[in-house]
């Protein structure tokens, strides 16, 4: 199955084995884990619970969204603008350079078109309607961050990719030219020619893999995107780690912080943040306007679809956090933070649409990794 990707080989594999993060036959989380992140009394959810457990796993109807093309046709006043397109996909405009993060337009977070978590919210703009992209960054190789049909389409464009060690094997197998792929170990950087833009791979607390075999043979990273005037932090997927303090000291401060807040579970506390730990991570990073990501698109955990948003709205004032929670497709400038409007609440006022119900899913393909994100 082509969507599973390809294992690193040859010179790519030799570079992987030279990484200080490679231990034995795989990458490992080697930085300190903050105690108490995983509930010792919480057991891993079963496959049935993952597929059918929990209430209000999906919204009753499509979420409010905006077409961003008009906004993108005009320059941002501050030089930094972000458009959340769903889950962890964000178009960042930073001093005239367009950067696309973890692009996922596919219908499922799965290697299969027939099974696996189904998208309940469409992307507010088609992939082909995107303006010219200067750079694509990919944090790690899980299905809800590295999407086969999306990469196949982007491979037709002359756009460079920056990603974590080993992930380039998937990209190359799907048609991206090797010369357009840059793979980074933690703390390594890449400067995009003729732009003044630099991308740095930084620590995260997670894992990788697209099947039952070969888990953790590619690296996972957070990513920092810097221009001469601005700095942006993108978490990818991660648990809370003391390394956020180090990231702040080495690469901060940040004009925009994007942290994952959805798809959390008490048993996943060391590999996912959730709203509470996202706010703690934000504090360790030194604060800054906070755009929550990794929610509002797929049902990947047992909590209600809007729980991350509601919990953040409750906790952010106590933490002194500056929330940016735009509608899908709404281009926002971190320099002009406004009060959050809980736009998502209008959705559950309408009857549920059957085609949005994830309870129709009955099984995952055997090659699906667990958890899938």
Summary?
This protein is an alpha/beta fold and 373 residues long. The chain has helices spanning 10-17, 47-52, 69-72, 148-154, 168-173, 243-251, 274-284, 307-319, and strands at 22-23, 26-27, 80-86, 89-94, 97-101, 135-138, 161-164, 181-184, 189-192, 197-202, 222-226, 231-234, 256-260, 290-293, 331-332. It has 8 helices and 15 strands.
* Biggest sheet, spatial arrangement of strands: 8-7-6-5-4-3-15
Please provide the count of β strands.
Answer: 15
CATH superfamily, called what? Answer: Ribonuclease Z/Hydroxyacylglutathione hydrolase-like
Q: What is the element string, with H for helices and E for strands? A: HEEHHEEEEHEHEEEEEHEHEHE
Multimerization status: single chain
Describe this structure in words.
By secondary structure, this protein is of the alpha/beta class. The protein has a single domain, classed as Metallo-beta-lactamase, Chain A (4-Layer Sandwich), CATH 3.60.15. The chain is built from eight helices and 15 strands. A seven-stranded mixed beta sheet has the order 8-7-6-5-4-3-15. Helix 5 links the parallel strand 7 and strand 8. The protein is globular, with a radius of gyration of 19 Å.
């Amino acid at each position: 199955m082509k969507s599973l990707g390809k294992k690193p080989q040859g010179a790519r594999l030799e570079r992987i084995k030279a990484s200080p993060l490679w231990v034995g036959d795989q990458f490992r989380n080697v930085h300190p884990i903050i105690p108490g992140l995983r509930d010792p009394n919480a057991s891993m959810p079963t496959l049935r619970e993952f597929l059918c457990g929990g209430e209000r796993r999906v919204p009753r109807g499509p979420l409010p969204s905006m077409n961003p093309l008009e906004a993108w046709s005009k320059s941002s006043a501050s030089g930094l603008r972000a458009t959340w397109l769903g889950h962890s996909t964000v178009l960042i405009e930073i001093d005239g350079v367009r950067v696309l993060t973890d692009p996922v337009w596919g219908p499922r977070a799965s290697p299969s078109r027939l099974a696996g978590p189904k998208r309940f919210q469409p992307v507010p703009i088609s992939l082909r309607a995107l303006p010219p992209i200067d750079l694509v960054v990919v944090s790690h190789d899980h299905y809800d961050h590295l999407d086969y049909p999306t990469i196949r389409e982007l491979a037709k464009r002359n756009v460079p990719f920056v990603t974590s060690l080993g992930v380039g094997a998937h990209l190359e197998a799907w048609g991206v030219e090797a010369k357009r792929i840059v793979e980074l170990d933690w703390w390594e950087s890449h400067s995009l020619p003729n732009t003044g833009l630099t991308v740095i791979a930084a620590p995260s607390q997670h894992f990788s893999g697209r099947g039952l075999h070969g888990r953790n043979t590619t690296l996972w990273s957070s990513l920092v995107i810097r221009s001469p005037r601005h700095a942006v932090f993108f978490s990818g997927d991660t648990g809370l780690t003391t390394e956020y303090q180090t990231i702040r000291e080495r690469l901060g401060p940040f004009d925009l912080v994007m942290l994952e807040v959805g798809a959390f579970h008490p048993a996943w506390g060391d590999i996912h943040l959730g709203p509470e730990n996202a706010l703690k991570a934000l504090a360790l990073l030194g604060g800054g306007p906070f755009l929550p990501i990794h929610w509002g698109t797929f049902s990947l955990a047992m909590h209600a679809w809007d729980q991350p948003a509601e919990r953040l709205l409750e906790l952010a004032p106590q933490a002194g956090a500056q929330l940016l929670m735009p509608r899908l497709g709404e281009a926002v400038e971190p320099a002009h933070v406004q009060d959050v409007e809980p736009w998502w609440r209008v959705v559950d006022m309408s009857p549920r649409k059957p085609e949005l119900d994830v309870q129709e899913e009955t099984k995952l393909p055997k090659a699906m990794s667990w958890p899938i994100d």
